[in-house]
Design brief:
Mean pLDDT: 85
Number of strands: 0
Largest sheet: none
Distance between the termini: 24 Å
Oligomer: single chain
């Protein structure tokens, strides 16, 4: 069965058709690259302009004079190292707690088949229909009653139960070959041993995706950390950029935003192969 495309193989075999195809392909790729990369370029170079130039109309595409002091001022004046470290602690703890609980729950629902498992899963998925804003007040009252305000645990605990990531893990566990698990049971492996030695090593792609989702969710969250951390020294970078931007020049604020976005961009560039593999794993298995 032949596959129909916009350009037939006969046209691609001709020099003129091949040249036209590659010209259109290159133009489309460059157009999409420009659309995605130009805002990044504008933000990076905006921090290198003078305050007068950044407010000029019409704006300049290239800085007239390159000022690198905006980045050094942002690093020192806005105390970025401390707030970045606060964010790392909060995001890493939330990611670790979420991986432990969601993996255990997904494994139990997928392989242990508890009583009323489908009903429990349906209740978990039903929480996705509840707006996040409706849960802010109950979460805050709970955290306040436990005395966890201004404590990273106040970020970790609400992030532990994530219905979407739990369902993603369960669907992946459902597609694991049962023959391998049954062979481990015949060899005398218990449920925990099977989870640790067989299921988790086979689930590295989806675990990587869940980790990225958990990290990004905490890193970009603003409302909940703003409510939990009244102490400025313990606030994450998302809240600190807003709280400390009142008397800061615009170029310094833009530089701080650039620095704050570097960890997530670097994380994606380093683990992009694992992220893509984990996202596509569910569609290629089974």
């Amino acid at each position: 069965m032949s596959t129909r495309t916009l350009i037939s193989p006969a046209v691609l075999a001709r020099p003129r058709g091949r040249a036209l195809y590659w010209s259109v392909f290159t133009a489309v790729v460059l157009l999409f690259a420009l659309a995605f990369l130009f805002p990044v370029y504008w933000m990076v170079t905006g921090a290198m302009k003078s305050p007068d130039e950044i407010a000029r109309t019409p704006p300049t595409l290239v800085p007239e004079r390159w000022h690198l002091g905006g980045y050094t001022d942002a690093w020192d004046l806005m105390q970025l190292p401390q707030h970045l470290w606060n964010t790392v602690v909060q995001a890493a703890g939330a990611c670790a707690c979420q991986l432990v609980l969601c993996t255990a729950a997904a494994y139990a629902l997928s392989k242990l088949r508890p009583a009323f498992g489908k009903l429990i899963l349906g209740g978990i998925l039903a929480t996705l229909m509840v707006p996040a804003q409706a849960l802010v007040v109950p979460k805050y009252l709970t955290v306040a009653d436990l005395g966890l305000l201004n404590d990273p645990v106040a970020i970790w605990l609400p992030a532990v139960a994530n219905a979407f990531n739990l369902y993603l893990l369960k669907r992946f566990f459902d597609q694991l070959p049962r023959d391998v698990l049954e062979a481990a049971e015949i060899d005398g492996a218990g449920k925990l041993r099977i989870l640790w030695s067989i299921v988790l090593p086979m689930s590295r792609p989806v675990l990587g995706v869940v980790s990225i989702f958990a990290l990004v969710a905490v890193w970009q969250d603003f409302l909940w950390p703003l409510m939990v951390f009244s102490d400025t020294d313990k606030q994450p970078i998302s809240v600190a950029l807003v709280q400390l931007s009142q008397n800061i020049q615009l170029t310094v604020l833009i530089a701080a935003m650039v620095i704050a976005s570097i960890p997530m961009v670097a994380l994606f560039l380093v683990f992009q192969r694992h992220i893509i593999a984990g996202i596509s794993a569910g569609s290629t298995k089974g």
